[in-house]
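tokens incoming
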């Protein structure tokens, strides 16, 4: 009789224990999904546009923060890399040594740092910068768009990062231009960075540009927000300021 009276209670406890274990397993699976995939998966059609400051990454459209140090995507040099480089290569692209004039266009200051994925600065990295002028024309024989050249703008500099990985240049905002089969190119600046053990070629874009949403090369980038600069407060003299950090795998 005692055994029979205790059996239903024991059975109830055992069934409750099994249900509790199943609930724990379900909770563990949900937690694992959030850890691995960053929350519920979204359709790639719902990812932010290239002009959006929020990030998406990879085939699963996983959102990543600007502060997470994913490597800056590598790109091609493009057709306007200056094989024959000008003699004036300092960080001020708005003036050419030996000339009185100043480059036409909106003057801006661009600064940033070159870092490894672990967050370590990459000092003494060589940075080559080239870009179109304010009208959208490169000083390069392959540029046959017919857009006007600026005699006071050569569109190239070669600098090195300091001990903190920092760099700074003074230039003018490049204009967009017809890019042939790729369609209209939104304003951008080219970078060729040689670190301690690797090289990175990238293009930097400007925030808030309407043509960012249709630039085929920017849209093809695996992480568009990572190559869009962020606007900083202007200088006291009114010069616009932008910031952009570059992340190399090893530096």
């Amino acid at each position: 009789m005692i055994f029979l009276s205790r059996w239903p209670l024991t059975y109830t406890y055992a069934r409750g224990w099994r249900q509790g274990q199943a609930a724990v397993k379900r909770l563990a699976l949900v937690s694992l999904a959030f850890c691995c995939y960053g929350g519920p998966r979204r359709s790639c059609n719902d990812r932010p546009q290239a002009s959006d400051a929020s990030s998406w990454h990879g085939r699963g459209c996983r959102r990543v923060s600007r502060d997470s140090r994913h490597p800056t995507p590598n790109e091609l040099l493009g057709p306007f890399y200056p094989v024959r480089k000008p003699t004036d290569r300092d960080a001020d692209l708005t003036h050419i040594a030996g000339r009185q004039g100043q480059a036409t266009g909106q003057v801006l200051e661009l600064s940033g740092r070159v870092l490894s994925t672990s967050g370590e600065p990459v000092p003494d990295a060589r940075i080559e910068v080239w870009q179109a002028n304010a009208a959208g024309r490169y000083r390069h024989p392959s540029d046959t768009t017919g857009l006007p050249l600026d005699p006071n703008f050569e569109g190239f500099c070669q600098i090195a990062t300091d001990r903190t990985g920092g760099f700074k240049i003074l230039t003018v905002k490049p204009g967009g231009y017809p890019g042939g089969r790729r369609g209209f190119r939104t304003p951008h600046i080219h970078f060729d960075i040689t670190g301690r053990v690797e090289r990175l070629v990238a293009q930097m874009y400007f925030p808030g540009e309407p043509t960012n949403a249709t630039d085929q090369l920017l849209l093809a980038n695996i992480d568009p927000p990572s190559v869009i600069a962020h606007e900083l407060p202007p200088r006291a003299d009114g010069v616009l300021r932008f910031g952009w950090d570059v992340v190399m795998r090893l530096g």
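note: Residues 51 and 212 are 6 Å apart (CA to CA).
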